[in-house]
Amino acid sequence: MLGFSSKQLIGVGVFLFVIFIGVPLVIGATGRWDFFFTLTSVALLAIASAGVWLTFYIGRINIGQGAFALIGAYVSAILVVKAGWSFWISLPAAGLFAAVVAVLIGLPILRLRGVYFAMITLVLTQVVTLTALALPITNGAKGISNIPLPSGLSIFGIPLIPDFGSMENTKLAFYLTACVLMVVTYAALYRLVNSRLGHLCRSMQQNEELASSIGVNIAYIRIVIFAISSFFGGIGGAMFGSIAQSVYPSTFVVADSVNFMLNCFLGGLGYVFGPMLGTLVLYFGWDLLFEIGKYQMLVYSMILIAVIRFLPNGLLSVRFGKGDKK
Amino acid sequence: MSPLIQVKNVTKKYGGLTANNDISFDVSENEILSVIGPNGAGKSTLFKMISSFTPTTSGEVIYRGERISNLKPHIVARKGVVRTFQETTIFKSMTVRESVVVAQHLRAKASLAGYFWGSKTAQEDVSAFGKYADELLEFLGMSEISNEQASNLPQGSLRALGIAIGLATDPKVLLLDEPFAGMNHDETMNMVNLVRSVRDERGVTVMLVEHDMPAVMNISDRIVVLNFGEKIAEGTPSEIQNNEKVIEAYLGSVDDEIGM
């Protein structure tokens, strides 16, 4: 079916079952409702990390995803609070706005390679933070708070999504929404990587000159990929803002951008689902180390260095062996 | 018959250094033309300008009546003028077959979105690419190594792979960058035959930059000789072999050698 092996289909089935049914059941039974928020965050951060992974796929180190997540969060918040849009319309709008910004920024900076591109993207997050502090529409340091919960969505009178405001348990609703978004993102990413566009990205990652000699418009593909990447960032950020019901200039900072990149490294750059696993492990790893107090950062960094040193192809390489299997 | 490619008064300056100075020559359809010259004569620069990998300082390159210099490389490739590189420029972590499949980019009929959704045209493309890749590798005698990772190939096969990638774009003109460098006599002869069959059986016009004189004399219909960025001679192999300027460029004049 669809070119998938039965083993892959079973894997996907088990995964979907676990996140949509298993996790809510376990949390319901144990009463650890706080885990919903943690897992929702993981799902949303995994969406943004998927974008970073995609820029890695064309051979660019992207440490600027925080900028696009912040842009997405603000665009959605402003559209909902000031323009009175439904959140569900503002979500794609936030992604598209981030993509447009990515095109404008990408045109000049995507010519750079290696560490030069990485350095510029590192600055982007700070630029967006400062811009948010300066612009009147973003309310400066006060940010935008009291964002209403997503309202219901119906098309032609058929209700598709219920009103979050009238729900008793918004945690579960947000968790399921984030999971749906994450699944759609990774399905799209998987499809993209295994279609012709993905093959062209691989050719560019390995040799841009040779790619252009076979007629690939490398400048165009770079822009398209960077826009898609930032779209994911914008979507993740917008959803995050809606859950927190507030956006501040410090909602996404440089450290978040670095984490998005680390998620990809940790999970494995050769695997589409690497960033998802990376986000989960990194997020929970950080939380678990909270117990050891002031040594948290020290131990955390040492573990990261060890993983990158001994598993340069990421955690998934343990399971799948070396090479770039998808 | 008007020439296929006309190089017209092409000049390239890097700051104060003149890499190519006022070079003009024509390439006819279906010929094998070699550009030779001592190291630093400006051969590679000339190739880069013909394939638009670098802009000309002045002058232009005309292909079928259209200017192809000072464009983007992928646009020139789309018009049918495709260059190959030296052996280190490959898709390292792809197999031979994958490289040849991806190199058929220009033959694609479906859009990138079509590939994403898996449209009918896209599926037809994918099977056509696979079929053509197998055909091409068979033609080049590379079927046995088609599933080999490119980074594991020996030098000779890498060059053949470079030519395979170039041919997969279905070019009208193929520019080969030192296809025989570092090869022993037998390997060179195989490659000479291969390049000839590319021209004879696929109707591809071939231009090559090369150092290996016996191979160049063997394969070329015509030869253009550069020295210090200037064209010093043009003609058939036998004309070039007896050209005094060429002999001087390669062996040095008596004065230069003895320093008198």
UniProtKB/TrEMBL annotation, chain A:
One of its GO terms (molecular function) is branched-chain amino acid transmembrane transporter activity. The chain crosses the membrane at residues 9-29, 35-56, 63-81, 87-107, 114-135, 172-193, 214-240, 260-285, 297-316. The keyword Transmembrane helix applies. PANTHER family: HIGH-AFFINITY BRANCHED-CHAIN AMINO ACID TRANSPORT SYSTEM PERMEASE, HIGH-AFFINITY BRANCHED-CHAIN AMINO ACID TRANSPORT SYSTEM PERMEASE PROTEIN LIVM. The lineage of its organism: Bacteria, Pseudomonadati, Pseudomonadota, Alphaproteobacteria, Rhodobacterales. This is High-affinity branched-chain amino acid transport system permease protein LivH. Its main location: membrane. It comes from Falsiruegeria mediterranea M17. It is found in: Cell membrane. It is a multi-pass membrane protein. InterPro entries: ABC_transp_permease, LivM-like. One of its GO terms (cellular component) is plasma membrane. Keywords: Cell membrane, Membrane, Transmembrane, Transmembrane helix. The keyword Protein transport does not apply. Signal peptide: none annotated. It holds the Pfam family BPD_transp_2. It comes from the Bacteria.
TrEMBL record, chain B:
Coiled coil: none annotated. GO terms for molecular function: ATP binding; ATP hydrolysis activity; L-isoleucine transmembrane transporter activity; L-phenylalanine transmembrane transporter activity; L-valine transmembrane transporter activity. One of its GO terms (biological process) is L-valine import across plasma membrane. One of its GO terms (cellular component) is plasma membrane. Keywords: ATP-binding, Hydrolase, Nucleotide-binding, Transport. Pfam families: ABC_tran, BCA_ABC_TP_C. It comes from the Bacteria. The keyword Nucleotide-binding applies. Residues 5-253 form the ABC transporter domain. Its EC number is 3.6.3.-. Gene3D superfamilies: P-loop containing nucleotide triphosphate hydrolases (3.40.50.300). InterPro entries: AAA+_ATPase, ABC_AA/LPS_Transport, ABC_transporter-like_ATP-bd, BCA_ABC_TP_C, P-loop_NTPase. This is Lipopolysaccharide export system ATP-binding protein LptB. The lineage of its organism: Bacteria, Pseudomonadati, Pseudomonadota, Alphaproteobacteria, Rhodobacterales. The gene is lptB_8.
